[in-house]
Amino acid sequence: MIGLLVVFLLSWLLLRRVAHEPIAVLGIAPSKRRLVEFLVGGLFMAGVGVINFVWQAHFKKIGYQLNPDYGVGQLLAGSLWVLKAVILEELVFRGVLLYMLIKSIGAVRACLVSSLVFGVYHWFSYEVFGSRLVLMVYILLVTGSGGWMFSYAFAKTRSLYASTGLHLGWNFVAAVVFSSGPIGSQLLLQQGEAVEWNEWVTLLFFSLQAIVAPGAVTWYLTRVYRPPADHAC
Q1: What pTM does this model have?
Q2: Residues 216, 173: Cα–Cα separation, whole Å
């Protein structure tokens, strides 16, 4: 919680002293439209996450069962941890820095820079920096494409709600539902030993995470979404 407060205060200070604008330009004030964008983004990426893990279970020949020791307290604690982590990353990577980049170099270039930085950041958060080059490239492309999706959502909606929803939907399903994250055993526990994938299966899941989901969000925000007239881009 302290980290969130520090990042929020730094964001406020940067906007006030450098950009000479209020922190409201990040679109943090709630509204009906923004809450709908948050919910739609969250449900979409939660659905993608469920498909991803169910398919993985099929190809890995594993199963999942409910954690018999799991309770409401663990669910709330795990959900809160994911929520704080997502909000922190959104403030850092899609907050004031992306906003200022958009004003300086344009939305598309700014989103590309942000997504690259987001991908490199995951080398360290996943502790793969300095490991096999193929793994580093894979992590960069998968997380970088996610970073593009979140950044583009912020750029088009001029709000952190849509990007936070997309980000939270995936992370919640991965970490809290399927126990695939740093918070350990959660709602579902893996059963059985996973078989090794071949290259085509790896490509299937890479495509889902790095091409299909980000591509669908980009298409929707470009072709279908209509931003409010006061911040259309």
Answers
A1: 0.92
A2: 19
